[in-house]
From TrEMBL:
It comes from Streptomyces caeni. The gene is ehuD. Keywords: Amino-acid transport, Cell membrane, Membrane, Transmembrane, Transmembrane helix, Transport. CDD domains: TM_PBP2 (cd06261). Belongs to the binding-protein-dependent transport system permease family. This is Ectoine/hydroxyectoine ABC transporter permease subunit EhuD. It is found in: Cell membrane. It is a multi-pass membrane protein. The lineage of its organism: Bacteria, Bacillati, Actinomycetota, Actinomycetes, Kitasatosporales. The keyword Membrane applies. InterPro entries: AA_ABC_transptr_permease_3TM, ArtM/GltK/GlnP/TcyL/YhdX-like, Ectoine_EhuD, MetI-like, MetI-like_sf. Residues 19-207 form the ABC transmembrane type-1 domain. The keyword Transmembrane applies. PANTHER family: L-CYSTINE TRANSPORT SYSTEM PERMEASE PROTEIN TCYL, MEMBRANE COMPONENT OF AMINO ACID ABC TRANSPORTER.
Length: 216
């Protein structure tokens, strides 16, 4: 077996298309997971169990169900109920919702780590609940959880190839299509593997540096 640089050259336009789709899925999925995860975390602190219990059941179900099953369900079952979305939209929603159940736990840990004195000070100042959360609790909690949230972004990046199963042409999807059309698998799949390393490893180093800076 010999390395074919011509195949690499021919594959690169497809690679850039796939990289764009991968980054789009990652960015939008991350935003959904961060926003929905925060909502889950706040609802789990509701004073009534009639809010906490349903949220706990839903998030536990999502977390305990494989992402691959969720992708198939959203892409193939929802259209039968009249809810049809593009493959990329379906993939973004699936990844975002799946990881929101993990970011929820990160937020909960950050909120619980806020010193009790901060809650007592907000109560002593007679701050309304919205003001207490927005000005006192969440700023301190978010500062603590940024590195952990970043780790889940990297995890989401490594799960984006699953979108290929619902016809999304991300990096792996483009590599698989190119390989099948040209009967050359080594070059495109190697390029994809290297690309994931070049994205994931610097991101992990950045997160470590950010964590050291935030804990000072």
């Amino acid at each position: 077996m010999t390395w074919d640089w011509g195949a690499v050259r021919d594959f690169m336009p497809h690679f850039w298309d796939g990289l764009l789709v991968t980054l789009q899925a990652l960015a939008l999925g991350s935003l959904i997971s961060f926003a929905v995860g925060l909502v889950w975390a706040l609802l789990m602190r509701a004073p009534t169990r009639w809010v906490r219990w349903p949220v706990g059941i839903v998030t536990e179900f999502i977390r305990d169900t494989p992402l691959l099953v969720q992708l198939f369900f959203l892409f193939y079952v929802l259209p039968e109920w009249g809810l049809a979305f593009s493959a990329l939209t379906t993939g973004v929603v699936a990844i975002g919702l799946h990881y929101s159940t993990y970011t929820m736990q990160v937020y909960r840990a950050g909120i619980e780590a806020v010193p009790a004195g901060q809650w007592e000070a907000a109560t002593a100042l007679s701050l309304p609940p919205l003001r207490t959360w927005s000005a006192v609790i969440l700023p301190q909690a978010l500062r603590r959880v940024v590195p952990a949230l970043g780790n889940y972004v990297i995890a989401m990046l490594k799960d984006t190839p699953m979108l290929m199963v619902i016809t999304v042409l991300d990096m792996l999807g483009e590599a698989r299509l190119f390989a099948q059309q040209h009967f050359q698998f080594t070059e495109p799949l190697t390029v994809i593997g290297v690309a994931f390393v070049l994205i994931s490893y610097p991101a992990s180093l950045l997160l470590r540096a950010l964590e050291r800076r935030l804990v000072r």
